Amino acid sequence: MANKQFMTVDGIPVEINGEKNLLELIRKVGVKMPTFCYHSELSIYGACRMCMVENQWGGLEAACSTPPKAGMEIRTNTERLRKYRKMILELLLANHCRDCTTCDNNGTCKLQDLAMRFDINDVRFPNTAEKPKIEDSSVSIVRDAHKCILCGDCVRMCNEVQNVGAIDFAHRGSKMTISTAFDIPLAESPCVGCGQCAQACPTGAIVVKNDIAKVWKALDDRGTKVTVQIAPAVRVALGRELGIAPGENAMGRIVAALRRMGFDEIYDTSTSADLTVLEESNELAKRLGEGKAELPLFSSCCPAWVRYCETRYPELMEHVSTCKSPMQMFAAVIRENNRTSSRKCVHVAVMPCTAKKFEAVRDEFKVEGKQDVDYVLTTQELVRMIKESGIMFRDIEPEAVDMPFGTMTGAGVIFGVTGGVTEAVLRRLASDKSNTALMSIAYTGVRGMEGVKEARVMVGEKEVRIGVVSGLKNASDLIERIKAGEHFDFVEVMACPGGCVSGGGQPFASNMEREKRGAGLYSADKLCSIKRSEENPLMMSLYNGILKGRVHELLHVHYHGAKQEDN
Q1: What are the CA-CA distances from residue 157 to residues 41, 179, 408, 479 (Å)?
Q2: N or C terminus: which one in the chain shows less Cβ crowding within 10 Å?
């Protein structure tokens, strides 16, 4: 007891146990402090001042930036603090647009939530701000500066976690805004479309670009055949929005809901993830066997990472796998399967990722000028469509995906979490196919939500060093180590922290919810009767059918800057 240190929060003694600020300590006593600019994974900014507390001497301190000290006494809910917080909210609302009912973040906006919490029924100050033009040049996200409260969350996310630096503060005083360099369109900036800025934004200032109306139009056209694929990470991310447990596997319900909406054929992207495993493992084995200089081999599933590599490290593009992403592989297969259809065919992909919208429109994935994926819907957009349809999602009976592409393995399912691609490839390359060996792969160090993981595994007679990174800052740090001479054979990169379960198009989730999403995918893997991609009977059928003689054409791609070579 003598070594323990305590302070007092609202009259309650609280032990100080390594908390970095008062905010963390206050949460231990069950008080939910109002904040706008605080994110535990970002640097302390302290701009919004909503988390101010009153100390025993009557002074005010920002809880997010003040470290706890033994003997300190603070109050979190005095009359003075309530007036202070209401004034801040009124001032923010005074320069904020009032179209809450039509805002994409209606119901999830933190400003709206705190205004209701603090009973802001009237704003005494006139709104004198000029309404800026909405910035929608990006195919992935939309920026509305009229809804920005200058909390800086998006700036710090883009710079600190993603190391992209597409946006920053510009100008001073009342003219301050968030902008790209020289106010160029976002589409012309270094933005990689990852959408993590939208995840961090507490209001509707940055949102996912909405393609719902285009999909409804296709569904309403009886002369159009509409097919859809659903990415692995989507199935575990609907909990908070649709009334099921966080991380629960809702794939069967999603299929049933999409079928009721009118989709003609519904598939699971886990199937094409099996194709990716086979092609990428072959590519890795070939490079390892030949001792090629183009090691490490970087994964290519994440379009935000590919874009980042193209713009930041173009000299490394020959190290990026030539495999298309599972979304684009499946789209190519479905296109070929529908080639003889008498109806117009539209293909939709439901993805956790905003960057997939950018990937879909890349020239590399167009055939005779037409995209293989016509529309990409994020998980957020899927949720809106389900709600708009009036479907009682929690009560709907689960249904299975369609044939002939309805067979998948656990290896494909785990693509949605960081380390999943690597584990699936190792399952394919492992010489020991026993269940014991399968379990041992899971404990090589590739699982877990950490941003950087490293492992050494035996592939045949060769020890292979593997890196698994999520978050582009982590990717950049690892690349600098490689450029300095450190050797890796295979590196999996996912732009979003934790992988696709934390994608920019997913409903917002706390760190705990993200972990539950990852756990949900591993649970789904356990329930799959087939664990390895090469054991999927559909693969042989595809290679002997649609893909025969056309594997490279349909499943591989050469991105800008990549050296042309045969695989």
Answers
A1: 9, 14, 35, 20
A2: N
Every domain of the chain and the residues it spans: 5-77, 89-208, 214-555
Q: Beta strand 375-378 with 344-351: parallel, antiparallel or unpaired?
A: parallel
Residue 250 to residue 500: CA distance in whole angstroms: 16
Catalytic residue (choose from 24, 54, 280, 513): 280
Instruction: Enter the tokens of residue 281.
Output: 């493992």
SS3 assignment for 69-98: CCCCEEECCCHHHHHHHHHHHHHHHHCCCC
**CA–CA distance, 66 with 64 (Å, rounded to integer):** 6
Q: Please check whether residue 95 is in contact with residue 62, taking contact to mean a CB–CB distance below 8 angstroms.
A: no
What pLDDT sits at residue 562? 37
Q: Token match 């050469």: residue?
A: 558
- Report the pLDDT averaged over residues 188-207: 95
Q: 503: buried, middle or exposed (CB in 10 Å: 19+, 13-18, 0-12)?
A: buried
- Chain-centre distance of CA 195, in angstroms? 7
- For residue 359, indicate whether it is catalytic: yes
2: confidence class by pLDDT, cuts 50, 70, 90: low
Q: What is the pLDDT of residue 510?
A: 86
Cα–Cα distances (Å) from 141 to 3, 20, 233, 373, in that order, read: 51, 34, 20, 18
Catalytic pick among 301, 302, 345, 353: 301
Q: Is 302 among the catalytic positions? A: no
**Highest CATH level, class, for 89-208:** alpha beta
Q: Which of 110, 356, 357, 516 is catalytic?
A: 356
For the domain made up of 214-555, give the CATH fold: Rossmann fold (3.40.50)
Contacts of 403 (CB under 8 A, 6+ apart): none
Alpha carbon dihedral 109, 112, 116, 120, in 10-degree steps, equals 160
Residue 321 annotated among the catalytic residues of the structure: yes
Nearby residues of 399 by Cβ (< 8 Å), 6 or more positions away = 252, 255, 256, 259
Confidence band, pLDDT 50/70/90 cuts, at residue 131:
confident
Catalytic residue among 24, 283, 492, 513: 283
> What pLDDT, in 10s, does the model give residues 133-186?
899 999 999 999 999 999 999 999 999 999 999 999 999 888 899 999 999 999
Could you tell me which CATH number the domain at 5-77 has? Answer: 3.10.20.740
pLDDT in tens, 529-566: 999 999 999 999 999 999 999 999 999 998 864 333 33
How many Cβ atoms sit within 10 Å of the Cβ of residue 338?
A: 16
